[in-house]
Design a protein that fits this description.
By secondary structure, the chain is an alpha+beta fold. Helix content is about 35%, strand content about 20%. The chain has 8 helices and 12 strands. The protein has a 7-stranded mixed beta sheet, with helices on both faces. Strands 9-8-10-12-11 form a 5-stranded mixed beta sheet, sandwiched between helices. α2 packs antiparallel against α3. The N terminus is likely disordered.
Length: about 280
């Protein structure tokens, strides 16, 4: 079952005011509260090493999750809660909150600013709204089905580039230690893309790269594996900013897809050629 993210439409200058759109400000407040808790907790943490990093990440998740569960359950009492942030596949019927309490927590514990708190409301396996909060910079990305994508209330549009040789391209891991096959696919695609694109970046999290694509700062992002919580928010942001979402072969992308590609319309067809050939 593919996720229907709707074809690109003319977007309003202000966020959508439908029932789903009306939830945006409430969800943003919930995420800001979780972000403040994370910033306060981080100020008390000391650098950690070895397996202690994993324990610190788990503790950070719990601090954020406590605030998210309470706030989002109040905002949408009818929605169920996805417990495992590292899995993919279709969801059961109904409404579901897909969250990442600390997206790229590994960056947080290493004193990097590239981390965020996210929440996406799924309805019948379709993302209908998403909010992403970047606590270190107090930025809020939002998107709603039927509306547009916004950064702190300002409309986002993807890049108008049409030449892959001028494109900024990104890729990365869906999760740590994905295995030799995936690692080789990433390596081969990076090597091939270096011959075709302007710049290629390999980093995590996926969602972070998708923000940049939605804002028109980069043109392509591809990933050989699928983690639901790491893609649905960014997918909606990119698509509602006018980008194209597919799998790496250019086919419709859905929660059951095993890989992912997002691109500006002008370079999507050429971008598909590289990971598709590698896979």
């Amino acid at each position: 079952m593919s996720i229907d993210l709707e074809p690109a439409i003319e977007r309003p200058l202000m966020p959508d005011i439908s029932e789903d759109g009306a939830l945006i400000s409430e969800v943003a407040d919930v995420l800001k509260h979780a972000g403040r808790r994370m910033l306060a907790a981080f100020s008390k943490q000391k650098p950690v090493g070895s397996r202690a990093v994993i324990n610190t990440i788990a503790a950070n998740d719990e601090i954020s999750l406590e605030a998210l569960r309470a706030g989002l359950s109040k905002a949408r009492p009818t929605a169920s809660w996805v417990k495992d942030e590292l899995i993919g596949g279709d969801l059961p019927p109904g409404e579901w909150w897909v969250v990442d309490p600390v997206e790229e927590a590994i960056n947080l514990v290493h004193e990097l600013t590239d981390w965020c708190v996210t929440a996406t409301l799924m309805r019948e396996n379709i993302p209908v709204l998403t909010v992403v909060h970047l606590p270190p910079t107090n930025k809020i990305y939002t998107a709603v089905r039927g509306g547009g994508s916004f950064l702190n209330g300002e409309k986002l549009d993807v890049s108008i580039k049409f030449d892959l040789s001028a494109a900024m391209v990104g890729t990365g891991q869906a999760r740590p230690r994905e295995g030799a096959i995936t690692h080789k696919q990433i390596g081969r695609s990076v090597t091939e893309m270096l011959e075709r694109a302007l710049v290629v970046a390999v980093s995590a999290p996926a969602r972070w790269q998708l923000f940049q694509l939605a804002a028109g700062r980069t043109e392509v992002f591809g990933q050989f594996r699928h983690v639901r919580s790491g893609l649905v928010a960014g997918a909606l942001l990119v698509q509602k900013a006018g980008g194209i979402i597919s799998d790496i072969h250019g086919e419709p992308w859905g929660l059951e897809s095993s890989n992912f590609l997002a691109a500006a319309p002008g370079v999507h067809a050429h971008a598909v050629e590289v990971p598709s050939a590698v896979a």
